[in-house]
UniProtKB/TrEMBL annotation:
Ligand binding (Ca(2+) 3): 244, 263, 266
Names of required cofactors: Ca(2+); Zn(2+)
Ligand binding (Zn(2+) 2): 147, 285, 289, 295, 303
UniProtKB keywords: Calcium, Hydrolase, Metal-binding, Metalloprotease, Protease, Signal, Zinc, Zymogen
InterPro entries reported in the protein's UniProt record: M10A_MMP (IPR033739), MetalloPept_cat_dom_sf (IPR024079), Pept_M10_metallopeptidase (IPR001818), Pept_M10A (IPR021190), Pept_M10A_Zn_BS (IPR021158), Peptidase_Metallo (IPR006026), Peptidoglycan-bd-like (IPR002477), PGBD-like_sf (IPR036365)
Protein's recorded name: Peptidase metallopeptidase domain-containing protein
One Pfam family in the UniProt entry: Peptidase_M10
BP-aspect Gene Ontology terms: collagen catabolic process; extracellular matrix organization; proteolysis
């Protein structure tokens, strides 16, 4: 056997060390890059999910943004945007020109007496000074994200009794209600599974509030459910299209229709997260409509029409009293 040359061995070791160091540099770079890219790749993998929630398409300006430019507008003014203001008030039950053909057309950008009366009615509903002008507090209230159901259903603009009002809570027009207490609900095919337990809890809270009068259970199929819950976007075929983030968050239909739609363009989460809306709080509100309750004039009620992002909300005594009165519980 040929003996090993110590010098040669040392040289070989030096070569190995150099080779290993050269191998280590790209390998360490790979580790560094992979650790940097991992969160990026995870975001690319599912771009709609945020921690605990669902991110909508909130790149467009708020549909209510036109209101800020109109602050200070009053009777007699002609200004671009007044037509949109009329449509806003008509949508939420304060204005109906079709019942009175002798007034300015809904399409015109003119602030007429009919519009002034409608704004006063809105201001009274939201406990604002009834000035009839589009003042700062009124603009701020109108610009709030809200439920898409009307506050009132106006047969004539002066008819303030179109909703049955007791205390702060209200019933929907015609006082629709279910003729039974056992109801089923189902989720649409694309409903995010992580949000289903929050809606389950909302149904449970209404069942408890009804002292057992109502029981809610998941149906075997979405099509066969009494109450159908889904995420929708834009014009989704029910006659009440969503139009992007920052305006209408959700809407529901009275008994016995049973449809309840979230706007998929909003940012939805479970719990209080800044810049997003709580799935359970909105479910509590819309279930109230499904049962026949209208919007309350009591700000602490779940049936108050507007919602802040980053907060949660629960049932109030006003909500429970409304349900008890409607169903004689």
């Amino acid at each position: 056997m040929t003996p090993m040359n110590p010098l040669q061995t040392s040289q070989d070791l030096n070569v190995l060390v150099v080779m290993e160091s050269k191998l280590f540099v790209p390998f360490s770079c790979i580790l560094f890059l992979s650790s940097f890219m991992l969160p990026v790749l995870s975001r690319v993998h599912d771009p709609h999910l945020r921690p605990n929630g669902l991110s909508g398409n909130n790149t467009k300006p708020s549909p209510f943004g036109f209101l800020k430019a109109m602050q200070g507008c009053r009777k007699g003014d002609t200004q671009k945007g007044i037509r949109d203001l009329k449509l806003y008030l008509a949508r939420f039950g304060y204005l109906n020109y079709q019942k009175n053909p002798n007034v300015t057309d809904l399409e015109e950008d003119h602030f007429d007496e009919e519009l002034e009366v409608a704004i006063k009615s809105y201001q009274v509903f939201y406990h604002l000074n009834a000035t009839g002008t589009l003042d700062g507090p009124t603009v701020s209230q109108m610009a709030m994200p809200r439920c898409g159901c009307p506050d009132k259903v106006t047969h004539k603009h002066t008819d303030h009794n179109s909703l049955h009002t007791v205390s702060h809570y209200q019933f929907l027009p015609g006082t629709p209600k279910w003729n039974r207490g056992q109801l089923t609900y189902g989720f649409g095919p694309s409903f995010p599974t992580q949000f289903m337990p929050a809606v389950d809890r909302a149904f449970g809270k209404w069942a408890t509030a009804s002292s057992g009068y109502f029981t809610f259970s998941r149906a075997g199929s979405y099509e066969g459910a009494d109450l159908k819950i889904s995420f929708e976007r834009g014009d989704h075929g029910d006659g009440y299209p969503f139009n992007g983030s920052g305006e209408v968050l959700a809407h529901a239909f009275p008994p016995p229709d049973g449809r309840f739609h979230y706007d998929a363009d909003e940012n939805w989460v479970i719990g209080a997260v800044q810049g997003a809306f709580d799935v359970e709080s909105l479910a509590l509100h819309e279930i109230g409509h499904l049962l026949g309750l209208g919007h309350s004039q009591f700000q602490d009620a779940i049936m108050w029409s507007t919602f802040d992002s980053g907060v949660t909300k629960g049932l109030s005594p006003d909500d429970i009293q409304g349900l008890d009165t409607l169903y004689g519980i």
